[in-house]
Amino acid sequence: MKDISIDNTTLSEKIAETIRGYILNGTLKAGDRLTEPKLSEMLGISRTPIREALRLLEMEGFVEIFPRRGAVVSVVTDKDVDDIFVLKMKLESLAAKLAIKNLSFEDIAKLKDINDKMEKYSLTRNVANLIKLNSEFHNLFISKCNNSRLVRFLESLLRQFKRATAYSFTETGRISKVIEEHKEIIEAFEERDADRVEKLVEKHIKNGWNFILNKVSGKVV
After folding, report:
1. Do both 159 and 190 map to the same domain?
2. Could you report the per-residue pLDDT of 177-204, keeping only the tens digit for each?
3. pLDDT, tens digit, for every residue of 113-167?
4. Is 5 part of a structural domain of the chain?
5. Distance in angstroms (rounded) separating the CA atoms of residues 218 and 204
């Protein structure tokens, strides 16, 4: 495995980024075990930051951690992707429509700031930061829908969604489209156009769905 360079990112995040990259490019495959002693030896790093990195990857859906077995690269099937996205497409677009009357000018400015940061990180294709910022963008308007049950349901769904969405940030072309689609959504929020924002969010999620399915299996919906 490659050496890990340390900048302003924590060591555990850098380790997670390295392991995530190997999962995305197929070096580590679904079902592979990721034991702390083996990773410690391969990376030349103590077990503590590796343990923290595996917890981060578990939160993102890249690995599952089992008692006495350790971490295993999780399996994501076409059906998993379909099941998640068909719900996300309908429910998140509804949340966006409901949020339109609750978003303040400061909230919209925050959406712009998040998207600007995504554009910055797209230049280096920093997948970890792009995943994080993309979640912040969507969570911001979801949190403003004023429907606690819908928020809780989408929070659960988004935890499963992170593994799939990572593929959207591995290719420059899709990253650019995500950023442009976000700009259109922000514009609809600024115009307080509920129907338009609902359609744009639904289209945005469907585009991601098709990209991921095509990336994984050559299938489109």
Report:
1. yes
2. 999 999 999 999 999 999 999 999 999 9
3. 999 999 998 888 777 788 889 989 999 999 999 999 999 989 877 766 666 777 7
4. no
5. 19
Lookup: tokens for 126: 């920093």
Strands of the chain (E only): list them: 33-34, 63-66, 70-73
Cross-sheet strand order for the sheet of 70-73:
33-34, 70-73, 63-66
Amino acid identity of 78? Answer: D
Q: Are 23 and 62 in contact (CB under 8 A)?
A: yes
Q: CATH code at 50?
A: 1.10.10.10
Q: Give the residue numbers spanning the domain of 115.
A: 78-217
Number of residues written out for the chain: 221
Query: Looking at the structure, do residues 59 and 149 belong to the same domain, yes or no?
Result: no
- Phi first, then psi, for residue 35 (nearest 5°) are -85, 145
